[in-house]
Structure formats: structure tokens, C-alpha cells
Amino acid sequence: MMRTLSAKPVPPIWCPGCGDFSVLAAVKKAAANLKIPVHELVLVGGIGCSGSIHNFLEVNGIHALHGRLLAQAVGVKLANPALTVVAAGGDGDGYAIGMGHFIHAFKKNASILYLVMNNETYGLTKGQASPTSQLGYEGNVEPPFHSILTALSIPAPNFIARTFSGDPKSMTAILEEALRFNREGRGFAFVEDLSPCVTYNDTYKLWREKIVDVSALPGYDPTDRKTMFRLCLEQVEAGRLPVGVMHRPKEPGRDGLEVKLVGDRAGPVRTDIRLAPNLPAYEKLLATSAS
Ligand code: SF4
Q1: What is the fold of 20-290?
Q2: Which end of the chain has fewer CB atoms surrounding its CB within 10 Å, N or C?
């Protein structure tokens, strides 16, 4: 017999002022604005402070293995394409142990949202240098990893954007667009939120000074990958933090992995796999594999 466990959402356990509170509020608002029924929304959390976000919302939630949330989120989407699936985690989880899955997610292009809360530190384990940490932070001698430049360098029909926890209104609008993109079967959406860790790396003030809205830059065209890579690289090299929509495909197509593999059929979880009604098909399959 299969048993399920339902747990009520609990209040966030984050430090007061943590940037992840804005993300929680924006996810809630975007899902409400799009009228996504709670039973159709799945949040797959990574490991780290941000990865506990699914515990604070009344949705279906999975706490994934470290760096493996994308594999699980893609699996959920392929099993039941009718669901809206959000994978949410931090920079340490996604850009260190999870890096292989991160790169392949753009190529696979399943219609899920990957939401990374980047605070340039490992907050949960008390502030060690992460892949996005600046030179000198906690003795870090490696230059920071730039997820947006990496995302823009992969030629796939993805939605790519960056937000800031200090601007929840813009974040909500971008998350809404990303979720709409997913729900239309158009493919993978990647949104990195700059989410300060007020306890171990309080960057609110510094980031407010450095943030640049890419849509205000001359030549801004999010349908042109090359232009956007150049614009973002120029901002990064000038020590600024570009935010906004970095890429949306020019042609609206249903390019999602689940569309290619499952099409308009119900996903495997909604398929009747009982023996009796499927016996002729199973016998045919066995005969084929035996010959
Ligand atoms: Fe947020 Fe940092 Fe506190 Fe973790 S340690 S909850 S990232 S402020």
C-alpha cells in the first residue's frame, strides 16, 4: 500500500533580512498571479539555506540530494508534464557539486524553472568561499564564476534572467515570465537571484551601487544572444552587476524536452500500466525482444 505524508508549511528558519525572503514572496506572488493551483506546483529544493524554500509554501516539495536537484526536477517534469516544476537552490549547490547538471540543463531544455539564490558564500555552513565568491573573500584566490555568461554561451532556446532581492517587484515580473515560458512548453528557464547573506556576506549596499538594468543599455536585444553576451561581459569587466532579462528566444516554439519525448500524451504517471488492459501490448513487446 502506498502512503503519502502531508505537512503544513512552517515559518522560514532564515536569518532576519536574508535575501531568500524576497525570493519566497516573489515565487508566491508569481504563482498566484498565474493562478497555478497548489497541487500542480512542485518545488525541488537543493542543499543549503535556500534549498529549504519548499518547506515554507503549501506546494508539493522534494528535498533533493546535494547538487542533484535539476536531475530530479527534470524527472518530475517528464513523469507528469502537466506540473509546473521549480528547482530552487544556492550558488554552492548549483555551481560546484551541481555544475555538470547545470550545463546539461540548458542543452536538455526541459520546461522547468531553475532558480538560483546566489549570495557568494556557503551560508548554511558558516561562510566559506563558494564558486561565486569575490577574490579575497575568506582567503579566496580563485576568480568568481559567472553563471549568466555561461548560460548565454550555450546556444539553446532557453529563457535566461537575473534578479536582485532588493527589487522584489521586478523579480516577481521576471518569475512570472519564466513560469509562463515553462507552462507553454517552450523549454528551460534559468533565473539567478542576487540574494545577500546578511550574516556571512552582507552585500545589500554594495550590490545596490553596482546593479545595472540591462534593458536600459544601448543595443539591448534579449533575442540576440551575441549582443547580450557582449553587453553582460562589458558590465562584468567594469565591475558591475547586470540584471534583467538576458535571453528569450525570438521564435515562440514548443521546444521543451517533455514536448519532444511525451508530446501531448499524458505523462507516464497518468498512464494505465495495469497488466490486464495492456496484456496484448506487453506480449507483443516480449515477442519482439525474444526474436
Ligand atoms: Fe540567509 Fe545567510 Fe542566514 Fe543562510 S546564513 S539564512 S543565507 S542570511
Answers
A1: Rossmann fold (3.40.50)
A2: N
